[in-house]
């Protein structure tokens, strides 16, 4: 499902909210999830916010999402919203 005004930034924030909800449901700290997923705590914190840096939406790698799924014992479907953003950023290197 796509929405003409649903942005990639909103999509990324929704993913972060789903990650946070899964963590809270498991009663885990951010540090514990990061350690279990083999990622830096700072990286994990950015994932929960859905923001890479101010003004830039996060675009996590598939390997990172799969690692989080394993650490949180959830499926990828649990983390990805069913509503799709109207525009998806280019995945080509160096493209903006």
TrEMBL record:
Superkingdom assignment: Bacteria
Domain HTH cro/C1-type residue range list: 19-79
Any one Pfam family match given in the protein's UniProt record, by short name: HTH_3
A single GO molecular function term of this UniProt record: DNA binding
CDD domains reported in the protein's UniProt record: HTH_XRE
Protein name: Helix-turn-helix transcriptional regulator
């Amino acid at each position: 499902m796509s929405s003409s005004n649903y942005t990639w930034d909103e999509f990324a924030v929704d993913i972060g909210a789903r990650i946070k909800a899964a963590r809270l449901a498991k009663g885990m700290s951010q540090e514990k999830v990061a350690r279990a997923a083999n990622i830096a705590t700072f990286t994990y914190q950015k994932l929960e916010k859905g923001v890479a840096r101010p003004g830039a939406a996060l675009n996590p790698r598939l390997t990172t999402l799969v690692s989080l799924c394993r650490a949180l014992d959830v499926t990828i479907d649990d983390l990805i919203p069913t509503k799709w953003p109207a525009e998806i950023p280019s995945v080509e290197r160096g493209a903006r």
